[in-house]
Structure formats: C-alpha cells, structure tokens
From TrEMBL, chain A:
<dbReference type="Pfam" id="PF05199">
    <property type="entry name" value="GMC_oxred_C"/>
</dbReference>
<protein>
    <submittedName>
        <fullName>GMC family oxidoreductase</fullName>
    </submittedName>
</protein>
<dbReference type="GO" id="GO:0016614">
    <property type="term" value="F:oxidoreductase activity, acting on CH-OH group of donors"/>
</dbReference>
<dbReference type="InterPro" id="IPR051473">
    <property type="entry name" value="P2Ox-like"/>
</dbReference>
<keyword id="KW-0274">FAD</keyword>
<feature type="domain" description="Glucose-methanol-choline oxidoreductase C-terminal">
    <location>
        <begin position="372"/>
        <end position="496"/>
    </location>
</feature>
<keyword id="KW-0285">Flavoprotein</keyword>
<keyword id="KW-0560">Oxidoreductase</keyword>
<comment type="similarity">
    <text>Belongs to the GMC oxidoreductase family.</text>
</comment>
Automatic annotation (TrEMBL), chain B:
<protein>
    <submittedName>
        <fullName>Uncharacterized protein</fullName>
    </submittedName>
</protein>
<dbReference type="InterPro" id="IPR006311">
    <property type="entry name" value="TAT_signal"/>
</dbReference>
C-alpha cells in the first residue's frame, strides 16, 4: 500500500516491526525481501513517485573540500538514484575486503565469501543475467575472443550490465501489493529518536514539506538513505546523543570516499585491433549477458607493490597511419611521434605490414580506489533546509598518494602492454600531486558509517547494526570500509539482501 | 629491410655502410665494426626516420649525449647476452631485440618520451637512428648509463 504522507493526520502514530528509511536500491531490495513475511514493514520515502524539485532541493548543502556537488548525482524519490544510474555491476575483489597493511583503516569484518551467495541474488535483483564475471570461457564465444595475455600484474575482468534496473519502476508493484508493507511517500524522517540511554530506537519523527508531522514506532529500523544522507541522518538524530546517534566515538560521517574517474589517463596503441576482443571496446552481448572487459590489477601486484586498485576501460579512438593529412595532424609532440612509436612496435613484433594503417589508438577511462581518510567527511552545516534540518557539509579530501597510486598503476599497464609486445601506452595523467576539479568523480558515496568489528573503528558491525544501538541498522554504501574500485550498486544490493536475511532471522527467532 | 624505409633513408643508411667500407685500413678494426654494427641494428627498424625523431626528442628531453658507437655497443652488449652476434641475419637481430624489449618491459626498464612508455633498448635504438641520420642534438659527454 502506498500512502502519501501529506495526507496523514498530524500526530498519527504508526506501529511496525520494521521501518526502512529510504526507497532506493538498498531500501527497496530489503522491502522486497521482507514482503509477505509475518511482520509489518513501513517503508518511508522522502519523495513521491516522480522527481519533484522541492524535495530534491533537500539534498543541497555546502562543499568545503575538493569541490563536490551534493544535489546532482543523487535523486530523492521512489527508486532513489537508480532512477538515473548507469547499470555497471561487478562484485568487489576478495582483496578489497582484506586488511592491507599498506592501506590504513582497511579491513572489513566480512569477506568476499560471506557476500558470494548474496552477489548471485543481487545479480537477479539487478536483472543482469548469468553470473559470469570471472569466467573467460563463458564470454569467449567458443574460444574466439580470448582476453589479452597481460602478464602477472594486469588482469582482464568483466563488468555486467543491469538494463539498468529502475528499482522504483521495476519493483513498485511488488512493494505496493505486499500485504505487510506500507510505503509512506513524501515523508521525511527528521530524527531517529532512541531511549534515554541511546541504546535502542523508539520512534521516528516524520515530517512533510507541507507541514504534517507524525511518528513511526518500529521494533527495528533500517537506515537506507544513501552514502551521504545516512551519515547526515545519524548526525541530525542528536536529541539524546548530542554528537548524533551511534556517534559516541565521533566516527559518523568520517572516511567519505569516492571513485575518482579520470578521463583518458593514458592512451593505448595496439598494432592490430583484431587482437582485441569486442568486449573490451564497448558493451557486448555474450552468453546471455551484456558485458564489458576491463583491466584491473592482480592481488599479487597490489600486495607486492602496496597499491590501491584501479579499473580501466578502453575504447577505439583513431587509426594511426603513415599518411596523416597535414591538415589533420595534431601538433602535439606525442602525436608527432605516434606513427614512429607504432613502427617501433612493428620493428620488433610479428605484425609488420604493408598497410598505411600502422595501429589503432585507444582512449581509456579509469576509476581508482581512494584510501580511507578520517578527515574526509560529512558534517552538518549551519544552514537549514525547508524542514528546518541542518544541511549537509562535505569536506572531501583526496591525497597526493591517491594520485601517485594511479600513476603507478598506469605504469604497470604500460609494462604489461610492452611485455605483451603488440601495444604501448602513453601516460597522459598530468604529473602533479593535486587533483583537479575538472577530473571526474564516480558519484559513488562511500564509507561514512563504515563497518568494523571494533566499535572504536567503525559505526556498524558485521551485520550492519549500529554499534551500541540494538535495533538500528544501516544499509547502503555508507557501510563500506574501503571503496574497492568498481561501481558500488551490486555490493549495495548484496549487503541489503544479507541484512534482510539477518533481520528476518531475528524475527524468526524472536530476538 | 622493412618496406617502410624510404628511398632517402635507404640512401642515408647505405651511406653509413659506404662510409664504413671507405674507412682507411689503418683505422682500428673496432671502429669499423661499430659502424657496421649500427647499420645492422638500424636495419631492424621499420621506419628509421621516425625512430630518429623519437630518439632526438628523448635525447633533448633528458639532455642525453651519446654517439652512434656508444648506443650501438650498449644495445649489442645486451643482445649478445641473449646469444646474438654481429652479422646475424636481420630477422634474427629483430627477434633478439624483440625479446630484449619484452624483457625490459617485464622488468620495468622503461623510458618516457612525450608520455609514451617504451623500453630502454627501444629508446637507444631510436637514439642510434638519430645519431646515424645526423638528427641527434649536438653531442655532449657520452652517457655512461647502462
């Protein structure tokens, strides 16, 4: 059942076993998983079924670190940011969950094996097709398209694409028809109110932009409002805990991470494009899935060289020819010597030819891992939104070492292509320490309620329960301890399904 | 020799060989060998003129000196360690260089020219071409870098 919060009488009290705050990828995944169980579930969404500027405006805030737009990448209505996501999916690597002594604050309290069964289920939720991420045989089309043999440092991995699933549209009926779920639209949780000891949530204070106020009294609360808003919501819940709920150690909002996306950090020249399987170059249908091959860095390489991860895509850019038209010729030094580099490769490879086409130049894109940094954080601004709540203040920090790490990884890519023999790499990443605002970000918001077994090191435990608060859970990328390199949505959904199982088990056991 | 070598480049390279042949008998044999050696190595290049431009840029950007003899001997020494000998057929030389180049990439022995990452031997082959074709910057002190 869908209920417009603007029509709920002032002072109404809604009782429920489970309250889910936020109807994005995580919230909808959990609600679906809990549909038709013997428990009343309330799903509370700030927006309606469509985009509304006044609601979206609640996302605005201030940025005091690396310039960052708070109100453009997120969408505040039913379905959340899945209403415009790109559909890139891939599980995290096993090493991403490990404690790496060269990455301060790394180490999840769960590992990849803990998530494996949920990744398979998340794949279904995201309508992706067969789970063939790490199966070269499945995507080789009978052996026709083999991955490039790039040695021990660089590996080919595959993304699979969601259509992309618009969770609000695709799963609306599941949610609306579920006998045990009431969805309150246009309803903003303004504060999560615990008992006097701040050890248990008792009620949620809800308001609408039209001024209505009501309460939800749940036995269990799942906060699923996104990687930035989850932290803000806890910080705003400060009537009892002045520093914010679950923030006794000052960790809520810290460790904000993104995936810096650098356009064309390097170019790759390859003598013969036929050596490059189609799945590297664009979205490709294979074995019932829509896939794309990317370059990542092996766990051995990352350990040995003490690096953070990077994922690199590439695409055909331009033929490198001997007969360049002077009018078209790029005067850049690198372009001047480009045909010479191609001839140099052909001098020592088996691919010398008669054609004026010497090689193909490929452009690249990349997303790279950012080291967790407690000073990179979400805070509350002194400015207030239309509900009278403090807006978000973001102080995003990137370190020179994050940038140096990317440069080193690209050098590893250059080694790999050179050792392969038929390719060379030109590094375009400017040789400077600072990140530039012109460089792109992934719009992936992670780490602000990080997961750690030790309450001194994280906000939530391995079950995504807030340390010290017995019935409050957090879903979404804010629980990521480290960011990995690949897009977060599949992992968000996998963690959400795991959390739904956990909550359901608690109800089954009556705990 | 690759089809990509122009008539002009052929003349230049032939000139290198002719110059070697015309050297006075009194000139130490080693020098004549060095000159011939340069020709052998340059003959593996698909496009010596373009290689020379890469070599020139590398030498300018690194303020690197060096002449034909120095570069040829450095490269030959590395190839010799892989069983190659002066006078081997061009295809054998090319193959030996290819193996060496891939080895250098595997062992992170790369140089950067305008962002391009190429192996040290490739860079020195290009510098050799520049020195042989007379496009190298004026020589300073010969580099002793190995």
């Amino acid at each position: 059942m869908f209920i417009d919060g603007r029509n709920v009488p002032d002072g109404t009290i809604v009782e429920a076993e489970v309250a889910i705050i936020g109807a994005g990828a995580a919230g909808i995944s959990i609600a679906r998983a809990l549909r038709n169980i013997d428990a009343r579930v309330v799903l509370i969404e700030s927006g309606g079924l469509d985009f509304e500027p006044d609601t979206q405006e609640l996302y605005e805030g201030e940025s005091v670190g690396v310039p960052y737009a708070l109100d453009t990448s997120r969408l505040r209505y039913f379905g959340g940011s899945t209403n415009h996501w790109g559909g890139w999916c891939r599980p995290f690597e096993p090493i991403d969950f490990e404690q790496r002594d060269w990455v301060p604050h790394s180490g999840w309290p769960i590992n990849r094996a803990d998530l494996d069964p949920y990744y398979v289920r998340a794949n279904e939720v995201c309508q992706i097709g067969p789970f063939i991420y790490d199966d070269p045989a499945a995507v080789s089309e009978g052996g026709q398209y083999q991955p490039l043999d790039l040695g021990k440092e660089v590996m080919t991995r595959w993304f699979e694409y969601s259509p992309p699933t618009r969770f609000g549209w695709t799963y609306r009926q599941d949610i609306e028809k579920a006998s045990n779920i009431k969805t309150y639209l246009n309803s903003n949780v303004m504060e999560i109110l615990p008992n006097a000891e701040a050890t248990k949530v008792e009620r949620l204070r809800v308001g609408t932009l039209t001024g209505r106020r009501f309460e939800v009294r749940p036995q269990t609360v799942i906060l699923a409002t996104g990687g930035i808003e989850n932290a803000r919501m806890l910080l705003l819940s400060n009537s009892i805990e002045k520093a914010g709920l679950g923030n006794g150690r000052g960790l809520v909002g810290r460790y904000f991470m993104e995936h810096p996306h650098i356009e064309r950090p390097c170019e790759i020249m390859i003598t013969d494009p036929s050596l490059v399987a189609p799945y590297y170059q664009t979205y490709t249908q294979s074995a019932g899935a829509n896939i794309r091959g990317v370059f990542m860095f092996t766990a051995d390489y990352l350990r040995k060289n003490r690096r953070l991860g990077t994922v690199m895509t590439f695409y055909k850019q331009k033929e490198v020819r001997t007969d360049i038209d002077v009018e078209e010729k790029d005067t850049e030094a690198a372009r001047d010597i480009e045909p010479g580099i191609a001839q140099l490769i052909r001098s020592t490879s088996s691919k010398a030819n008669e054609s004026p086409v010497l090689a193909m130049r490929y452009g690249t894109g990349c997303a790279t891992e950012q080291a967790p940094n407690p000073d990179s954080r979400i805070m509350l601004s002194t400015e207030k939104d239309a509900l009278g709540l403090n807006r978000t203040k973001i102080d995003w920090r990137l370190s020179p070492s994050d940038r140096a790490n990317l440069r080193h990884n690209i050098e590893a890519l250059a080694r790999a292509f050179g050792a392969w023999g038929e390719g060379r790499v030109r590094i375009r990443l400017p040789d400077r320490d600072k990140w530039d605002e012109a460089e792109g970000w992934g719009n992936h918001h992670m780490g602000t309620t990080r997961m750690a077994a030790d309450p001194r090191k994280g906000v939530v435990d391995a079950n995504c329960k807030v340390h010290g608060v017995e019935n409050l859970y957090v879903a979404g990328s804010s629980v990521f301890t480290t960011s990995a390199t690949v897009n977060p949505t599949l992992t968000i959904v996998a963690l959400a399904l795991r959390l739904a199982d956990h909550v359901q088990t608690r109800f089954t056991r009556g705990v | 020799m690759s089809d990509a070598i122009s008539r002009r480049q052929l003349l230049v390279l032939t000139g290198v060989g002719l110059a070697a042949a015309a050297l006075p008998a009194a000139l130490p044999l080693l020098d004549r060998e060095r000159t011939t050696l340069a020709g052998e190595l340059i003959a593996t290049l698909a496009d010596p003129a373009r290689a020379a431009e890469i070599g020139r840029q590398w030498m300018v950007s690194t303020e690197r000196g060096g002449n034909t003899s120095v570069f040829a001997q450095k490269i030959a020494k590395r190839l010799h360690a892989r069983g190659w000998h002066p006078g081997d057929p061009t295809d054998v030389t090319r193959s030996a260089i290819g193996e060496r180049v891939r080895y250098e990439f595997r062992h992170d022995d790369m140089v950067e020219i305008s962002g391009w990452q190429i192996s040290r031997t490739e860079a020195e082959l290009c510098a050799l071409a520049a020195a042989s074709l007379g496009t190298a910057p004026a020589e300073t002190e010969p580099s002793t870098e190995g």
